[in-house]
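notes to self, project folder thing:

trying the whole complex as one job this time. last attempt i did each chain seperately and stitching them together was a nightmare. three parts in total, labels are on each line so i dont mix them up again. if this works i'll redo the older ones the same way
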Amino acid sequence: MATAEMKPIDVPDARYLRSSRFSRIVNVAGIYGIAVLFIIAGAVLQGLGVINNFMTTRNFLNIIDAVALLGIVAAGMAFVTYSGHYADLSVPTTMALTGIVTVELLHYGFVPAVLAGLAVGLLIGAVNAVVVGRFRANPIIWTLAMSYVTMGVIRLVWVNRQIYPDVQTDNLRTIALFDGIFRLRLFNVVSLPVLLMILIMLAGHFLMTRTVYGAQLKLTGSARRTATFSGVNAERVVGIAFLLAAFTAAVGGLIITSLSRVGAWYNGTGYEFRAVTAVVIGGVTLAGGRGTIIGVIGGAFVIGLMNNIMTLIGIGTFSQDMIRGAIFILVVGINAKSLRSLGRDDA
Amino acid sequence: MSEDGPVVALEMKQVGKRFPGTIAVDSVDFEVYAGEVHALVGENGAGKSTLMKMLAGSFNDYTGEILINGEKVDLHTPSMAMKHGVGMIYQELSLADPISIGENIVAGHLPRRGVFVDRAALAAEAKRLMSIVGLDLDPDLPIEEISQHEAQLVEIAKVLGTNPSILVMDEPTSALSRDEVERLFAIIGNLRKRGLAIVYISHHLPEVFRIADRVTVMRDGKKVASRDIASLTREEIVQMMVGRSVKEFYSRAERTIGEVRYRVKDLSRWGFFHHVDLEARVGEILGICGLSGAGRSELARVLVGLDPADEGTMELDGTVLSGSGMAYYLAKGIAYLTEDRKSEGLALRLSMEDNILSSIVPRLRRGLRYDKRLGRTTVRDLVRALSIYPTDPAVTLANLSGGNQQKVLLAKWLAGGPRVLILDEPTRGVDIGAKVIIHEAVEKLAGAGNTVILISSDLPELVGLADRVLIMRQGRFVREMSYEQCTEESLLLAANGEESA
Amino acid sequence: MRRSERDTTSSGRTLAWVERYRIFLLFAVIFVFMSVFAPRFFNVFNLTSILRMVAMNATVAIGFTIVLICAQLDLSIGTVITFAGVVGLSLKEPLGYALSVPIAIAAGAMVGLFNGVLVAKAKISSFIVTLGTLTILQGAIYTITGGNTISLSTPDAFAVSDFLAGPLIPLITPRILLMLGLVAAFELFLRRTRTGRNFYLVGGNRNTAWLAGINTDRYLIAAFVLSGTLAAIGGVFFAMESSAATLRMGDQSLMYVISATIIGGTAMTGGKGGVFRSFVAVLALEMLYTGVILFGLGNEVKIFIAGLILAAVVLYEAYAYYRHQREIGKRPELIRELAAGTTRAHAAVDAASDGAGGKA
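result (full assembly):
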């Protein structure tokens, strides 16, 4: 590459040289800026009478609830992308299996069932951690295979059955608790998923930017061999990223199962793509080592607002897919182009 | 050369090339005659490789004019350059690993019969070209199954296959053994006789004096001069490269050498090196000399815990090192500067600060928190001590010159205050200014009572710095020399296994 | 990168041979096992039905293999199958197959062109691009169909369907013939023509290809166009044979085709593999699935086994690479010493002859 031959001229253009905190703040501010633009657009559309009921508390609560689930799943996925391993495509089946196992075991009580569900989710993460972290299998293909194995297990054990909490247990309190995962509201406003999302976001942000693990993950994601040659246990660092993705997927699985009040193989379908979208729109680059969790949550918000406005306008779910896909490619393309024009070497 | 003076095969007039934020080549005039070997020398970042990539058609936006055999040509793509008879042997091999030798050699212009590739012709052509460079391999083998030096020769065969009239070689000997270098020089001599214009880029001045007819020196993207090699001395060339007169290069500082710090007994990693003993002392610079492939880097990797040993013990200050993994060794103060700066040493996408601190991440801890600010003074001091430019710690590393990147790599390991620092080719491909600074820092480290193990193929470096040199050959230590015994010649002979018993 | 010395021992050569031809061995093992043990496996009817089942996926696998040889990924193939089926059948009534089928195939090519241009020219990761087109196409499919299966029940549609499904000679129906023809043509193209070989070069090392004067962008785009086109061909002919296009007809194919291609030995890192190998792998997988069903096991077992097989192959390849990395740089003469058990004696001789030995 040409870089070896480059010699900085006397007054280096700061734009080319700095990879500062400033640009990170601009990136994060950017995605929330877009979110604000969407809100303004929604307000304007409502003012023009194109849509109704956008600027209502009810609607915003809906948006935030929808965002929470995606935000939680995306936060964990972001660690995988940040580690330079693209995505964990076993997320949907992890969600489904966690939900099914939890509901199946509800008759042992709420807490044991939830713990067992999370444990099963983490088990999938652990397998990914070993295979991708240690043996360096291609993450996309491996996690895809993993999702099929998991789906196979679900179909083998439960066939096409849907599992209802009230069938699994007579204990009304347990059922109420399980239903409450999605529906419980603090002060009648903040729902449990939203609370969890904020918690996971803060913890994730702290982990990524303010801990030794985060620093090692950044190094590993940017240059894995260099990390190994700096005394970083890259196998473990990458493995933990997959465990985190599995954990948030499991939490997401609990929420989505509570929402639908049924454990079924199709719970979580499409969440791998949605989460990747949020992660990438939120500024975590596929090349690894770049982006923030707060940005990712911002990405989830933009998606949530976009969906909401499109629904209110009356655009069908399926046309929404098309718009989402196009915006996804567009955002990544613009992002890659701007990084390149700034002399950064990744896409 | 003919009686009526040399024939100009290549003329570059006022050529220039800019990169974002830099001017790599600035209005250079460059002339090469048919039938000569023309050396192109200069420090890293002087613009040699950029100038030659321009010739090879790597850029579509250079300025100035290029004339080949007196005719103005546009060299905007590699295929245009190839059509005009420019052949380039790249420093970083341009071979495709999963593809067969034969298809690599004739890449892009496979012989055809009808619509199909003529496989017999392909194999014959590959064999013919390989025989020129003295290789006898199955053309169907993929590149990933042959060794590094075989691949280097395949690369040369490949370029010869394009029948170039102008041949550019960028550090062609870096991966070759001595015999192979001799053979290469014989090939170059032949090509010269056939009237090819050959441009030879090298950092290795003795080679330049052996093979070149004329030399062009570049500095900071500009040409300093083109001269007959016979009219110059080594010192004069270095002076032109650096832009100032170079005084005594190595002035051996007196160091007091103390107790044994790092003792290795009967260390083996099966298949890589067997039964190695070494003792490195406090305040000592211990050199390890050997040809590439002698097992030096493999030994180093075991010495710092990157690979497990199959047999043997390692002791630091009399205590056996019982842990495993590099982090354990690092915590004990044993560090390793890799020979592969780009893929093992640095994270080019991260900032200089992140890179320098990357070896001491676990130490920058305040309670649960990782706090980069704890390393701020370390970074500032190291940047100053090693004169790293630019000085802004937030600069992205990819934007630094090779020499400065290498200084950052050294700074990364100095940051932890190592007690035993193993350096693997610490100045390979680095300009002279950076080299001097790195050498000073290494001597200072040893002078402060630390131990340095210096693995190097740069013989003057070993002769100048090391207190003792161990010679490694085929996975074993075969000799030891004190610095009084060391000369470039004696080291080279020993490494090649040609010294008298 | 430093490369390893060649393993020239006979066991090493045998292993390399098994590794190289593993897909054909696997095929043979499955075929023999099922023929012997699975009830009603080895008969013309069943074998024809297997070939009919693979006709679509084998066609799609051709394009996917080319993309993978170029070291890229095309996740959109599943939706392109469905999209082409839906377009081809929904335009049949107004236009007739003579027009609607070319339109459907052209639509697939356009999707490929879109993918290819974004990957090659805009330099966006193919994972992102094809994930995006997958989402877009899903929306498009539902928008066109309104969420309903398109099925044709006119006599001429049935006639076409009967023609495509009817054997010309035992085992071979027109659709199977088409598939075999495409596999043969592309195998020959990739193996024996200069353009075909250039795909390998582009995937093996894009820089090498560029330096050799190959327009690498054009090859990347071509790979995606071929992938889109072949996925569309697979989809539309399948839909014509069943006179129906369901909204999920291509859903299983992505996993199926990825598995087969990788099991067939096309490397995820590019520059290796081939169309015929992918075809044999598709066939082997389908025989396995059919066998599973014939043994009376359900669809769920089939999914489970599919996942396990892919997982096993990915794991094996990752492990082989991991082991290979550990072997790189070993010195053959030291290995020979080890084998002979003479390391120490040798060392002593060495030390004696060199005088100073290795002692510090």
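what i see at first glance: The first helix of chain A runs from residue 14 to 17.
need to look closer tmrw
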